[in-house]
Design goal:
By secondary structure, the protein is an alpha/beta fold. It is 39% helix and 20% strand. It contains 15 helices and 21 strands. It has a seven-stranded mixed beta sheet, sandwiched between helices. It has a six-stranded mixed beta sheet with strand order 10-9-8-11-12-20, sandwiched between helices. Helix 8 links the parallel strand 11 and strand 12. The chain is globular.
Amino acid sequence: MTIENLPSVIRHWIGGELVDSADRRTFDVSDPVSNAVYAQAARGSAADVERAVTAARTAFPAWSGISNRERANTLYRIADAVEARHDRLAAFETYDTGLPITQAKGQARRAAENFRYFGDVIVALGEEAFRQGEDQFSYVVRTPVGVAGLITPWNTPFMLESWKLAPALASGCTLILKPAEWTPLSASLWPEIFTEAGLPAGVVNIVHGLGEEAGQALVDHPDVPLISFTGSTDTGRHIIRSSAQHLKTTSMELGGKSPAIVFADADLEAALDSVVFGVFSLNGERCTAGSRVLVERPVYEQFTRRLAERAAGVRVGEPSDPATEVGALVHPEHYERVLNYVEIGKKEARLAAGGTRPDHLSEGNYLQPTVFADVERDARIFQEEIFGPVVAVAPFDTEAEAIELANATQFGLAAYIWTSDLKRGHRIAHAVESGMLWINSHNVRDLRTPFGGVKASGVGREGGAHSIDFYTESKIVHVALGDVHTPRFGAVR
């Protein structure tokens, strides 16, 4: 795949300028189709984070001081600039992540919508007021937290960056973004987007680098009071421990091992479409993938067979090919990790489909969509997040057993329930330990709704007004409206 204007060097963006690392270090960036190095990215350190924090703190008074409407207008201009780069962004994302081009093309629209949505939210969002009879009146003032640290993952990186950037900017925060080191290419578009939109210098700063260096420095910095992180559960635990020293506010969107529960009375064709799309789209590299499929026993054999047939028919190929449905996994390290789980699965369950490299693709990080059947609840492929095109299928006999199996992991991010009995659907939705659930639907999300998980899938909620709550502090002001009658301690009697 050939891309025009592909950068050979990806620099930090600090204080409105593209800069090298203070120590001039870089790291290699490779594409997942050839695994060949195509660029060098600046390798950030504590010194670079310090520069970025200084720039953000300098820009904070002016940015936080303008009206919500002015900030919203800037967000709308950012959205326009994102959409104007639709084709280039999709090409960059496909080249860097291995996502199929047809799926990458939706990322620009979703990213732009994030900025437009939060521009609307910050203008429309009111503040609370309380009246205590005729004597006192109280009102709430929202103030931006300050400098926000945003650490984003390598799957659909540009869109997920926008998911954090938009509400942070709308709230009046200035910020430092640390993109994932495996996929920094699309983040290189942000400087020109923000410049075109007229965002003041220093409001957004981008520091590239490794998580244990640049990311750790951002988490440790005493002048960054807030960290929003999306990534693995283990890394999230580490960030929370590190943040405790400075009592930072954190939002953690972490791992998932989400169940898709299919009852015998469900629309099986619709459920099958949802399961196949939900676990194999985005190369299976999605936190909300329904990677544990629980099927009621009367239709278990039929559903599992058809799922295996559909998996075998999924088109695996070059990410740039519009016909491709599953592309290349993001990085050799991750590819090896997924392959290791496939080998584990072959010892734990029945391989019903896939499990090998496609015959027509001799190079690159490719895996045929893989289905394991008859998976026991204690199997590692049932319990652990694989984050690839691999699904585990298990039968259940009763509603109670379906709930027990759905809850039998450390994770609790999403769940999908398929049944024609809506009373049962609601009962199970209330019983499953998960932050988000869909009944007779795949992952269709309203930006107004809270996003986040329970248990090892995260801490906190973002999305809609919840995001504004996260990036702001609520200050309550109490005002006396009449005479104050305070007990007179110590007064001469």
